[in-house]
């Protein structure tokens, strides 16, 4: 069986992205194996102290994302043969734009802090006396707002878009595609009462107005979501609401 | 529109919309006005006292100055890390100065 050559970035957080080194491994190439299979095999048989993260192995949890041959991907849903031609070396490193904990494991804290900053949590509308409203909100499935919310609701927070975003690399304060995609689903939720604060939170240089619409987030999203359109929707809403005095 | 950059973004889009139309008007006017050759004296004879044209080119220069300066501000922020209110004020000054040069040139051409 031919050997599969793999290079894995190794290093500690203190070393930063430049402080690490590449470690080379070789293992038997199999007909059917994912990148996650390869990393797991290396850890079990050759490098017991290799740090990486995974949970479900079937593309549900979004915790195994890494950069494979220059692209952020879910390693559990990426077959080796889709990424590397026979004989080609696999190059695996931690997701870009995230602080590294060790080896392939990154710290997701800044990423989820930005979801909070973008007011990514549902804020129920109050009734006039501060309690739960008496009336149910009617949300027709075919309504435009419902469909716009639906388009982005399946995000599982894997960070692939965030790692692929140039603007995040240029401006560490930038909220990033996932946080703003989440905000857009809530702006389109008629039951939500936090729209104005949310639009304020996602506007400006650290928010939607810095997006260049290069759409790498949309292209790389493993769930085929379209954060780029969500960000465009935020820009549009803020622009017209302000111009027409609705906010 | 409170967060830094929001208002500048809106100004850049609105000036772009105006510039899109203005550039077409500018180019079409040049092509129609030439009519097989023009001297400087002929141009000045026609432009002197054309107040609406002065207003058009003053708006053109203002939009071009602001639009360009905001674009350079964004590039400087992203590539060089030059950010902040002071830097924004500097870019606004550069934009208005550029616009003033353009308006001064239009004034020289159109005032009676």
Main-sheet strand order of chain A equals: 2-1-5-3-4
Helix and strand sequence of chain B: HHHH
CATH fold-level topology of chain B: 3 helical TM bundles of succinate and fumarate reductases
CATH second-level architecture of the largest domain in chain A: Orthogonal Bundle
Brief write-up:
Chain A is α+β, with helices and mostly antiparallel strands. Chain A is 34% helix and 13% strand. Chain A has 10 helices and 7 strands.
Provide structural commentary.
The complex is a heterodimer of chains A (247) and B (112). Chain A has 247 residues and is of the alpha+beta class. Helix content of chain A is 34%, strand content 13%. Chain A folds into two domains: 104 residues, Ubiquitin-like (UB roll), CATH 3.10.20.30; 135 residues, Fumarate Reductase Iron-sulfur Protein, Chain B, domain 2 (Orthogonal Bundle). Chain A has a five-stranded mixed β-sheet. In chain A, a hairpin with a 2-residue loop joins strand 6 and strand 7. The radius of gyration of chain A is 21 Å and the shape is elongated. Chain B has a single domain, classed as Fumarate reductase/succinate dehydrogenase, transmembrane subunit (3 helical TM bundles of succinate and fumarate reductases), CATH 1.20.1300.10. Helix content of chain B is 83%, strand content 0%. Chain B is built from four helices and no strands. Chain B is elongated and about 50 Å long. The mean pLDDT of chain B is 91. Chains A and B meet through helix 10 of A and helix 1 and helix 3 of B.
């Amino acid at each position: 069986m031919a050997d599969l050559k793999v290079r894995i970035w190794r290093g500690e957080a203190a070393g930063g992205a430049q402080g690490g080194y590449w470690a080379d491994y070789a293992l038997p190439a199999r007909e059917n194996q994912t990148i996650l299979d390869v990393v797991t095999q290396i850890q079990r048989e050759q490098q017991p102290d290799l740090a990486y993260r995974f949970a479900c192995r079937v593309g549900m949890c979004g915790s195994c994302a890494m950069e494979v041959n220059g692209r952020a991907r879910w390693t559990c849903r990426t077959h080796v043969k889709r990424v590397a031609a026979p004989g080609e070396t696999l190059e695996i490193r931690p997701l870009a734009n995230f602080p590294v904990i060790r080896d392939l494991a990154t710290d997701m804290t800044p990423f989820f802090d930005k979801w909070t900053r973008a007011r990514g949590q549902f804020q129920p509308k109050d009734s006039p006396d501060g309690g739960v409203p008496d009336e149910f909100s009617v949300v027709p499935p075919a309504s435009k707002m419902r469909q716009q919310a639906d388009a982005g609701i399946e995000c599982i927070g894997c960070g692939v878009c965030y790692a692929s975003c140039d603007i995040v690399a240029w401006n560490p304060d930038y909220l990033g595609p996932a946080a703003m995609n989440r905000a857009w689903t809530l702006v389109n939720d008629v039951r939500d009462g936090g729209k104005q604060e949310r639009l304020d939170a996602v506007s400006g240089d650290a928010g939607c107005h810095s997006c260049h619409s290069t759409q790498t987030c949309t292209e790389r999203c493993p769930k085929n979501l379209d954060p780029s359109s969500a960000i465009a929707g935020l820009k549009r809403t803020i622009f017209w609401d302000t111009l027409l005095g609705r906010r | 529109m409170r967060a830094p950059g929001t208002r500048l973004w809106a100004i850049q889009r609105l000036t772009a919309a105006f510039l899109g139309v203005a550039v077409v008007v500018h180019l079409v006017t040049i092509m129609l006005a030439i009519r097989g050759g023009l001297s400087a004296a002929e141009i000045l004879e026609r432009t002197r006292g054309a107040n609406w044209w002065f207003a058009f080119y003053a708006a053109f220069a203002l939009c071009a100055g602001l639009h360009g300066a905001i674009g350079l501000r964004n590039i400087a922020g992203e590539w060089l890390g030059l950010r902040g209110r002071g830097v924004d004020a500097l870019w606004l000054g550069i934009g208005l100065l550029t616009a003033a040069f353009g308006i001064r040139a239009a004034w020289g051409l159109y005032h009676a």
